[in-house]
Each structure stands twice: as C-alpha cells, then as structure tokens.
Design goal:
The protein has no helices and 6 strands. The protein is mainly beta.
C-alpha cells in the first residue's frame, strides 16, 4: 500500500533521491536523480532533478507544477514524483 504525501513541499526533496514518473507518447517512464531546490531568476522556486542518466535535468517550477509526491520505496529512492 502506497501512502500519497501530496502535502510534502518541493523544498523537502532537496538533496534527496527522486524518481520522476511521466508518460512519454503513451509509455510510462521513470527517471531517477537527485533533487536540488533553488530559486531561478525567471521561474522562481524550483526543484531541479539532476538525472543519473546522461547529465540531463528536469525542472519543476513550484508555482505551476502539477503532480503528486509519494514515497519512493518502489523505485529505490526517497521520493516518487508522478507528473500528470
């Protein structure tokens, strides 16, 4: 049973391992990395996820992101972000 912890602020993911689940062309994908919470001059407060594969990054702007945060045990991470 997975408990959804939607009230967890993005700032709580700073320095933690994060899995990000998203759908790309109808296929679910999980990307893993480390969360860095910071302020971007153009976007405001963001969570930058430095991905383990290929040095890419995902940015989630706190003011406009839409998703849920759950425990990441199933992905061997601290948190799992499900993007909708």
């Amino acid at each position: 049973m997975s408990l959804i912890t939607e009230c967890v602020p993005l700032a709580s993911l700073h320095g933690r391992t994060v899995a990000v689940q998203l759908s790309i062309q109808g296929h679910d994908r999980v990307l893993k990395g480390r969360g860095i919470y910071e302020i971007d001059p153009g976007l405001g407060r963001i969570l930058r996820v430095d991905l383990r594969s290929g040095g890419a990054q995902l940015l989630l702007a706190e003011a406009s992101w839409n998703g849920e945060i759950a425990p990441g045990d199933s992905e061997d991470c601290d948190f799992l972000i499900r993007l909708t």
